[in-house]
Amino acid sequence: MFIDFEGIDGSGKTTLSNLLASRLKRLGYKVAHAREGGELQSPTARRIRELTRDARLLEMGPRAEFFLNLARDAQQLEEVIAPSLKRGEVCITDRYLYSQLALTGGGRGLKEEQLLPSCELASQGLWPDLVILVDVDPDLARLRKRLGKVQSGKVNDTDSRKGLVGAGLAVRVREAFLAQARRDPARWIILENNDQPLRVLEQRLVEAVVARLEGREQPVQRLVPAPTPPPPGVASVDDVEERFFHAVDGLEAREPQLAAWLLNGIPGLPAHQRRVAYAERLPGLVARSLTGLDDDTAWTLRDVLSASVPVDVAEGLGFVTSPRSHALRQRLYAQAPAAVLEGLKRQDSPEAWALRERGMKDGHLSAVLLGLAGVDGEESWVVREAGMQRKLYSEVARSLGGLATERADALREALIPHDRLAVLKSTTGLETPVAVGLREQLEKGALKLVLRSLTGVDTPRAWAMRERGAQLTKEALDSVDGMDSPRAWKLRASAARRWPATVVSSMKGLPLVAETRALLDRILEEQAGKLPVLRNAYAVVAQARALEQAQRPVRSLVETLAVDAGRQEA
């Protein structure tokens, strides 16, 4: 029997396909997995995959990508799948030709009927007996992928070619998979992986597959475990805290790592209470979840965790620049020099330069460069020159982040032939000639980075690019984070149904005025129960409340002075 797993990146298909292979082996079946442990079993197929993922090959068109992916699947078929089936084994694949139809047809926009003859040729008439589509909310899949990168130490890895297109690609690919499943319900099973423990999904999957192996047909196409019920009533700003933490507490029982990760950057007592509860089991994720927080509880947790997870504590400092942060970075340097040095972005203080000089002496030039973003003093240019001499082009490019000077643009021009994507990232928030030229050049191949580089830019050219991009991917909304202009609100309102979680997160830093509350309430009502939406909505509300609380003493003082001035005039 030939069983294929399909689904968008981050859906869990690789994990579930390997779990199924293990369970079937324990039940006595002979099983071959063509991508055991997540690695293609054909060396040739692995080489082809590296080529299709290479982010430097931005000019590769969708047809060339399609034929390369067909070659990969054809080689897997010839080397692994067909021999396994000839031996009478159950052969499991993690992606097959259906993925190429979904990616190139649904994702890239080519017509599926033009692609099918080539797929038939590549298949040699051999198609799976059973296809298991692991279906998941794309926003949740993206959170899981990001968490996986953190846990595997790959958080700074560059995007693949697919990743550079933006998150909208996964939405379109998912829609294409669902369309394929609807057209062939006898062959496809849809397994939803949104809000149930892995062991429950595994058991449902094993039961369905064994029934097929034993010739017992199951009429149900969808395997949908009962979800955890949300609190009753319609979600709104007024009860988003209760709903978010209800969801987090339910998630903690089945995906504790994700529950901890969802607290990232969220201030306030309820979030800190859960961090304390998770700290012993998940110290690294708790430390990273403190990103940007500067309250007493955050500092107590950092002090407690610094001995066991120094790198995570350093990463979780974010852009905090208080005296406490300087002291902690100095303590952490011996155990986590790279993380400490990379965390010095935008800091031009004597304390920051003392650490950089120490890092240079210790041979950490790459990390020093990565922590120079936003720093424009003469010392910083000496370091950049050292980086150029060592051919650390990507790191030098990233060190230019936030700098809008002619000198910075001249260096960007020199770096474009070496790493144009790193140069593009360094233009975030800028509208310099180099920034404008790169955006126009890379809009097609690296739309995600182009749109994110527009963050905070308020020009007609930027708005036109956002409005085009919002039809394709959510990063157009990422670029209006914290913006309070009429055009930003118009874009949010028009994209709220297509990219709800991102529209919500774009309101972070804005006060809870009537316009903010109205859009939050609308999205919460329409998307009730969706964890990424709840998470982002509560982050907006919690940060707005924290800002209001921090400003209260200042307001009181201003009001007092105004009253005193009025009395003096009287």
From TrEMBL:
Residues 5-194 form the Thymidylate kinase-like domain. ATP binds at residues 7-14. Its EC number is 2.7.4.9. Keywords: ATP-binding, Kinase, Nucleotide biosynthesis, Nucleotide-binding, Transferase. It holds the Pfam family Thymidylate_kin. It comes from the Bacteria. The keyword Kinase applies. It catalyses: dTMP + ATP = dTDP + ADP. The keyword Kinase applies. Phosphorylation of dTMP to form dTDP in both de novo and salvage pathways of dTTP synthesis. HAMAP family: Thymidylate_kinase. Belongs to the thymidylate kinase family. This is Thymidylate kinase. The gene is tmk.
